[in-house]
Amino acid sequence: MTNPPDERGAELRELFFETAQELLQALNEESLKLEKSPGDEEIVRSIRRTVHTLKGDSAACGLRELSELAHQFEDALSLESAATHGALAEIAFAAADVFAEMLASYHGGGPMPATEGLRQSISELTSAPAAKKSRKKKSAEPVPQSSKHWTDAEKRAIAQAKAAGLGLYNIVVKIDQHCAMPIAARQLIHNAVRESGQVLAVRPDAKSPAASKQVEFVFAGTKSKEQIEAKCHIPTISGEVSVTLMHAAKSAKASAKEAGLPVAPALVAAAPVIASQTPTTSVTTADHAAPPETQGAVPETSMPQAATENILRVEAGRIDNVLNLVGELIIGKSMLQQALSEFGKRYPKELLRGKFADAMAFQARVLNDLQRSVMKIRMVPVEQLFRRFPRMVRDVARQCGREVDLELSGLETDLDKGILDAIAEPLTHLVRNAVSHGIEPSEQRQAQAKLPRGKIRLHAYHQGNQVVIEISDDGRGIDAQKIRNKAIELGMATTEEASRLSDAEALDFIFRPGFSTAEEVTEVSGRGVGMDVVQSVLQRLKATIHVETHIGLGTTFRLKLPLTLAIIKAIMFWVEQRLYAIPLNAVSQIARTHESEVHQVDNYEVLQLRNQVLPLLRLGRSSAPDVDRKSSKLFVLVITVGEKKYGLIVDALEGEEELVIKALDDQTFSTDLVNGASILGDGKVVLILNLPAVVEHVARTRPQDTGLTNSGLLLNHADRTRLALGTAGGQA
After folding, report:
1. Per-residue confidence (pLDDT) for residue 347, from 0 to 100
2. Which residues pair with 575 in a beta bridge?
3. What is the C-alpha separation between 481 and 28, in angstroms, rounded?
4. Does the predicted model carry a pTM greater than 0.70?
5. CA atoms within 13 A on the CB side of 161
6. Which of 408, 514, 558, 657 gives the lowest tally of CB atoms within 10 Å of its CB?
7. Burial bucket for residue 224 (CB in 10 Å: 0-12, 13-18, 19+)
8. What is d(CA 1, CA 65) in angstroms, rounded to the nearest whole number?
9. Within its chain, how far is the Cα of 194 from the centroid?
10. How far apart are CA 597 and CA 630, in angstroms?
């Protein structure tokens, strides 16, 4: 494998590896379309364009093996018989997999994958009798392009030209057979046509063997047929010229009404000229992977090039650095506010105090705008993650012998890039389980009066300052009693304990390590790993998961994710003279009560609050003497974890503040009860609690034992935490 020696080559390779993933995603999507619509020539052309771009980009980076294999596949797709080959979709899927393995090998330096099987399949496309026959059917006469061969981009360009009132022509120019430089002749003809109006499409591809014989244009302009023909006649360059009127010129208003488009006064001036566009290696959709002559042919707006040029590809690490600096500025703002408060107390009549306050308020507004702007930069649509699942569902369904349709919605929902990357694995487990566990075989579904094809739905939407992702299926549902029986069988619960569990509590067992209801172990499921990974990852992200299921109707897993992990609004409180914080959005209300109102039920503490029995989480011991304990007052924070409410007992409240979360390494802090820490303006370190882990800890610990003060390990690490965060003083 060849490696460009210079730094510029290394930078080009990194850019290629990034864009190549988009090309492979496009290849998978087009292959799925082809599987559903076999023989569709337009889809085959789209696949060929994607493979062509991958070939060119890999060759530019010196990745010879990948470039040659892509070139072989592209040549096979160029044959007219390829579209009708029954196994073309399977070959395209296999090519996408092999290309992905080769890219991973190039990027990681591992061994190259075997390609003989794919090469053999590609050879079958080129050796088919229909392929040989199709090569002899090349017509020597200029044949106008049929509308069915136009891409969606070209169709939109034609519609816009009609709306502008332009005349549309199909121009076919044969290149003089005695011309010594047919490729240069093609460019001269192209330039001549462009001088008369706008070129909306060019056929064939410049690298196609037919490019040296003739060139065909879809042309928009106000010139007459005779004027266009005269422009195309170039001595010793062009031969026979055919100009066919496709649509007569009309007024812009009438054309827009006919095309069903809004009237755009500047449409004529804004229409693009294709030859001035330069091909790019950055490909995001199948349409963008068109041959160089058609790239950028259709503007989504009146300024197609401006939209592309204004896109800046930036490494995620650089944005993270900016976000970290914004976090430091927020800490600095807190310090200034603390200093201003002390200054005001010491010099209450000082006139400069008002000026300082105004400057601080202005700085706070700018800082808030800066923070929101940086956060928006990190936000990406969930479509980037959802796009990988159609191919995965198709493969898993085949392995399990299921028929499954996947429905995606809410693709435009934005989520922090870091969170999006982190939930990729949990979401993959949930979708695979929905196929293997949720959807029944077609025979069972038909026996239950269901459609033979099951449906899985991925839906994302915003809810307050959270993003909700739902994974739903219309399968068999989860039987809570079966879960109880399996828990007893695996020794995770006694018969008595299992009988007392509600259905919702029984469903929590599916997130325990080693728990599985599968009857047999397969490549897809049955080993009892996966769902516990889902739970642990979501806890690390300060996210929750809720299961809603109905026997025979299906199951929905609902993930609630924070918009960002870097900066949060938090409420701070004191427990045993130590400062803690929890996300403000987790607190629904704050209540005052007395110890005498706290009751014991099954050895757990509960509180009746507004006709609701609230389980209590006690973070410390009561500091009052036993005599006064019943009359001592308590602060109770009513929090929501998942779909359940709990009461968090604290000693005193400190207030609300915007906190910058600092991660804690395992050597400094070896507990899952804390998500991170933050530094306040006066130098104090506040620990941010992981509420799901706290709830789970209390569920395993009886109040009469050590309670959550069993986390004395947690509390006693405060000084080491402060050192890890780089602060010298202050009480944590």
Report:
1. 87
2. 578
3. 40
4. no
5. 29
6. 514
7. middle
8. 7
9. 40
10. 8
The tokens for 478 are: 């989860």
Which pLDDT score is estimated for 149?
61
Tokens coding 60: 């530019």
Residues 640/584, Cβ–Cβ less than 8 Å: no
For 440, the token pair is: 């029944």
Q: How many other CB atoms sit within 10 Å of the CB of residue 422?
A: 18
**Cα 130–Cα 135–Cα 140 angle in degrees, nearest 5:** 140
Give the CB-side neighbour count of residue 282, counting CA atoms within 13 A: 10
Distance CA 532, CA 538 (A): 10
For residue 436, which amino acid is it? S
Whether 647 has a pLDDT exceeding 70, the answer reads yes
What single-letter amino acid sits at 708? L
From CA 494, how far away is CA 503, in angstroms rounded? Answer: 16
Which of 215-224, 560-569, 650-659 shows the lowest mean pLDDT across its residues? 560-569
Token pair recorded at residue 401: 């012998």
> b/e string for 425-445 if b means 16 or more Cβ within 10 A?
ebbbbbbbbbbbbbbbebeeb
- Tokens linked to 725: 């965060």
Backbone dihedral region for residue 209 (phi beyond 0: left; psi -120 to 50: alpha; all else: beta) = alpha
Q: Which two tokens stand for residue 387?
A: 């796009």
Average model confidence (pLDDT) for the chain? 76
In whole angstroms, what is the distance from residue 21 CA to residue 324 CA?
28
Specify the higher pLDDT residue, 78 or 65.
Answer: 65
pLDDT band at 267 (very low <50, low <70, confident <90, very high): very low
Of 18, 36, 149, residue with least CA distance to 92: 36
521-533 burial: b if 16+ Cβ within 10 Å, else e: eeebbbebebbbe
89 is written with which tokens? 């979709």
Instruction: Please tell me the distance from the alpha carbon of residue 306 to that of residue 652, in angstroms, as a whole number.
Output: 56
Place 287 in a pLDDT band, splitting at 50, 70 and 90: very low
The answer to whether the peptide bond before residue 204 is cis (omega within 30 degrees of 0) is: yes
The HSE-up count of residue 649 (CA atoms within 13 Å, CB side) is: 27
Rg (the chain; Cα; Å): 33
Residue type at position 568: I
**Which stretches of 61-216 are DSSP H helices?**
64-77, 88-108, 116-126, 129-135, 152-163, 182-196
Helical residues (DSSP H) of 37-128, grouped into ranges: 41-60, 64-77, 88-108, 116-126
**Each residue of 305-341: b (16+ CB within 10 Å) or e?**
eeeeeeeeeeeeeebeeebeebbebbbebbebbeebe
| Cβ burial, residue 474 (10 Å; 0-12/13-18/19+) | buried
* Highest mean pLDDT of the ranges 8-12, 179-183, 537-541, 670-674: 537-541
Q: Tell me whether strands 414-416 and 454-463 are parallel, antiparallel or unpaired.
A: unpaired
3-state secondary structure of 221: strand
**CA-to-CA distance for 57 and 79, rounded, in angstroms?**
22
Could you tell me if 237 and 184 are in contact, meaning their C-beta atoms sit under 8 angstroms apart?
Answer: no
List for the chain the helix, strand, coil content (%; round to 5). Answer: 45, 20, 30
User: What confidence tens digit (pLDDT) does each residue in 482-537 have?
Assistant: 988 888 888 888 888 888 888 888 888 888 877 776 655 455 554 445 687 888 88
pLDDT confidence tier of residue 541, bands split at 50, 70 and 90:
confident
Average of per-residue pLDDT across 431-439? 90
What percentage of the chain exceeds 90 in pLDDT?
A: 8
pLDDT tops 50 at residue 719: no
Q: What single letter denotes the amino acid at residue 301?
A: T
Chain centroid to Cα 414, Å, comes to 9
